[in-house]
């Protein structure tokens, strides 16, 4: 039986790093936990929003004891919040920053890797063994859009008091538009726990205007070896195609800010510009608006293997569709999406 003197040790994830919080017991309060987090991270207790702990179905108040929160030795939590210096910087004038590029130059590697037998065998094993929890059933006749999260939909390195501040602008408008023609899947190179937290905090899993089909984590990825970069983890779409026969290279497109993630399916991937430094760029980033137009434009294409997604910004659709697509390029009244 647990004693009130039992030591509680927690791992807190914040700004892309993990911090171990020690020195607390089951009799310690959430407020004391926040004070301990403040010592480790520098984020004031009153600015912290802790995700991953619940009391009576909601975030616990500061006076709730940790012993009431069903904390396990392996418990990890996520914290949202900003340091005072960062908040001060956010209020300063926004400089005109260039796009940040961070990717391997892998184009020469793609052809030699895509059809290697040992990697195809790994994909087959994932198809057999991977457990996929369906959120909503696939719809007949819909193409498939596979989306990364970090730096694609969400700036996971910057700090803020809410996930909405780090959400890529026009996210919900983009997903509403895409859902008309595509079933939507999320595939992130992290644990499912964090995927679920991020999607909930961004309001994606609760938005009534679109639905996610399923979500995949790092457990669905495979490791491959490239002559130039050694062993890397990638997201082979064959894992999805092996489980869902209605989708293939002909009707699937994947968005990711890192091209190496779709090295096994280079023709099906579109490298999105990474969304970083959200506080500086959220009022001028329109990547999702433009990509919504592209998805609508190619929705009538029977075979996506005839397209070159690297040239997506120069794609031209039939004249009769242009008026509709042009309207999609008009931004909503707010400069960024609401979390819904």
Fold and architecture overview:
- Its cofactor is Mg(2+).
- With 340 residues, the protein is an alpha/beta fold.
- Helix content is 26%, strand content 17%.
- The chain folds into two domains: 77 residues, Phosphatidylinositol 3-kinase Catalytic Subunit, Chain A, domain 1 (Ubiquitin-like (UB roll), Roll), CATH 3.10.20.90; 222 residues, 3-Layer(aba) Sandwich (Rossmann fold).
- The C terminus is likely disordered.
- The chain is built from ten helices and eleven strands.
- The strands form three sheets. A five-stranded parallel beta sheet has the order 7-6-5-10-11, covered by helices on one side. A four-stranded mixed beta sheet has the order 2-1-4-3, covered by helices on one side.
**Which residue ranges are poorly predicted, with pLDDT under 50 across at least 5 consecutive positions?**
90-106, 318-340
Taken as a percent bin, the fraction of beta residues is 15-25%
- Please indicate the count of domains: 2
Number of helical segments with 4 or more residues = 10
Assigned CATH superfamily of the largest domain: HAD superfamily/HAD-like
Q: What fold name goes in the CATH topology slot of the largest domain?
A: Rossmann fold
State the helicity in percent bands: 25-40%
Structural class comes to: alpha/beta
Order of strands side by side in the largest beta sheet? 7-6-5-10-11
């Amino acid at each position: 039986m647990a004693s009130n003197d039992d030591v509680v040790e927690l791992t807190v994830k914040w700004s892309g790093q993990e911090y171990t919080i020690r020195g607390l017991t089951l009799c310690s309060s959430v407020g004391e936990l926040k004070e301990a987090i403040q010592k480790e991270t520098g984020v004031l207790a009153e600015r912290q929003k802790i995700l991953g702990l619940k009391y009576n179905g909601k975030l616990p108040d500061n006076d709730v004891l940790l012993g009431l929160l069903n904390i396990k030795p392996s418990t990890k939590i996520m914290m949202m919040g900003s340091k005072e210096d960062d908040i001060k910087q956010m209020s300063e004038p926004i400089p005109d920053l260039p796009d940040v590029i961070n990717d391997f130059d892998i184009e020469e590697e793609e052809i030699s890797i895509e059809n290697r037998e040992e990697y195809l065998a790994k994909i087959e094993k994932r198809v057999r063994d991977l457990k996929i929890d369906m959120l909503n059933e696939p719809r007949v006749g819909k193409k498939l859009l596979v989306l990364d999260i970090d730096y694609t939909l969400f700036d996971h390195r910057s700090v803020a008091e809410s996930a909405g501040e780090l959400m890529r602008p026009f996210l919900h408008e983009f997903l509403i538009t895409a859902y008309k023609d595509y079933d939507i899947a999320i595939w992130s190179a992290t644990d499912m726990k964090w995927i679920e937290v991020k999607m909930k905090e961004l309001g994606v899993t609760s938005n009534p205007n679109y639905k996610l089909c399923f979500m995949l984590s790092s457990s669905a990825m495979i490791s491959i070896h490239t002559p130039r970069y050694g062993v890397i983890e990638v997201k082979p779409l064959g894992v999805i195609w092996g489980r869902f026969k209605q989708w293939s290279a002909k009707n699937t497109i994947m968005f990711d800010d890192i091209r190496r993630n779709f090295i096994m399916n280079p023709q099906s991937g579109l490298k999105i510009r990474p969304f970083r430094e959200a506080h500086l760029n959220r009022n001028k980033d329109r990547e999702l608006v433009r990509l919504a137009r592209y998805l609508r434009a190619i929705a009538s294409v029977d075979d996506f293997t005839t397209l070159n997604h690297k040239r997506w910004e120069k794609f031209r659709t039939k004249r009769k569709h242009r008026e509709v697509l042009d309207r999609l390029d008009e931004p909503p009244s707010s400069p960024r999406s609401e979390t819904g």
